[in-house]
Amino acid sequence: MSARRQSDPSNCAATIYHSTMAVRKTTTIEKLETALAALRSRYSALNERKAEARSALDQARADQQRYFFESDISDDAAIATLESTVDAATLRLSSLSDACAALTAQIADAEQTVAAETEREERRLAAKEITATARAVQERFGSLLRELRSLGESLAAIEPLSFETFKFGHFLRHVTGQIELASDVAPSQLRGLAGAVERGDAKIPDFAISAAAESCDDVGSR
Length: 222
Description:
By secondary structure, the protein is mainly α. It contains four helices and no strands.
C-alpha cells in the first residue's frame, strides 16, 4: 500500500501512505515521525553543504585553469597549492554526496516504517469499529426478535378466526425464522471481517472508515 518516495527527501509535505481516515497519532507514530523529521532536516543541511562544496570545486578548477593559462607554469609550489585545493574540494564533495545518498536511503526506510505503523493503527481502529458494529447489529436483532415473538404470541389466539389471520401468523413465523438465521450469520461475518482487516488480509470497508474517522474526531475534541 506504500512505495518509496521519488521526490526530495527533505520535502516534509510529501507522504508515503495516503490514509483514508484521520488516524489519531499514537506515541509510537509520533516518535517515528520525529525521527523522520530529524533525518529530513539533517539531509537538508547536508544538501546545502553539498551545493557549497560543488561551487567550491568549480571555483578551484577554474582557478587552476586560469593559472595554467595566465601564470608561471614553472612555479611548482603554486601549482601544487592549486592541486591540493582541487583535491580537497573534490574529496569534500564526494564525502557530502555519499552522506546525502546514505541519508536518502535512511529517510526512505523511515518513511516506510511510519507508513506501516500508521496503517497498522488505522486497521486497528477499523477492526474496533467493525466489532462494535457486529455487537450493535446483534443487539438490534435480539430486540427485533423479542418484539416479533411477543407479537406472534399475541396473535396466536386469533389465527383460527380466518384464513387471512392464519396466513399472517404463518408469514410472521417464517420471517422470525429468517431473522434468527441472519442474527447468527451477520454478526459472525462482521467479527471475521474485523480480524481480517486488522491482520491486513481484507480491505477496510467504507462504513468502518467513516466510523473510525468520527471516533478520532471525538477523541481530538475532548
